[in-house]
Amino acid sequence: MIRIAIVDDEPNILDRIKQSICSQFKERNIAITVVKYTNGSDLLNAVETGYLFDVVFLDIELPDGLGLNVAKQLRNSYRNIIIAFVTSFDNYVYDAFDYDVIGYIRKHELDSRLGTVIDRVIKKFREISNEKIFKNSTGQCRESTENIVYFESDNHNITIFFNNGKEFSYTDSLKRLEDEYAIHGFIRIHSGYLVNLKYVYSIEKDYVVLKYAEKNEKLSVSRGRAKELKKAFQQYFRGGL
Hints:
The chain has helices at 11-27, 40-48, 67-77, 93-96, 110-128, 174-181, 226-238, and strands at residues 2-7, 32-37, 55-58, 61-62, 65-66, 82-87, 103-106, 131-136, 139-144, 148-154, 157-162, 167-171, 186-190, 193-196, 200-203, 207-212, 215-220. It is an alpha/beta fold. It has 2 domains: 2-128, Response regulator (Rossmann fold, 3-Layer(aba) Sandwich), CATH 3.40.50.2300; 132-238, CATH 2.40.50.1020. Strand 13 (186-190) and strand 14 (193-196) form a beta hairpin.
């Protein structure tokens, strides 16, 4: 799940940006939450009171000051926050990149440029949130998401299978994991399986073959999920997931 904030002082533009962002992430099968703000102060106040955002889309000229100043304050407080500017102005483009922004989108180019910036956001978010910690009653496990082959669920009992052949079991919800790990290229193929597309060797009629740890493993694919799996597999290897 990616938490996104959008800041623009024009409500109609704000709604348009939100709609476009939601559409782009829906195409990529990635869950997001979006909060809208009409000025920078409200965003900064929300952050100070505990709201956490992974990505912020900022207008440059806001009623309470420049979006550049908002970006500076966000960057000073949260080094890893991902920032993009969506603006009607060209004259701030060089200043904007002083704040390590992921993109600078002119509003009249929103439809043509947003998809490219979203792909950069996804790539950056993956890099930032790559390492995970899992805990059970006897200990914990710290691993990179890229080393996870798949999750198996049996009534909230989750077993993680790693690419070195090791396993780790704990309690969680596969639905929650599905929302969290879609950004990392995982897809639900069955009521009991969430797989990492990186390890999908082939897709057959009613199962997938996963290749890891010097073995090929077959997992069942639900009939209703086969089409979505094939689409996600193609997108993943085109770099769109």
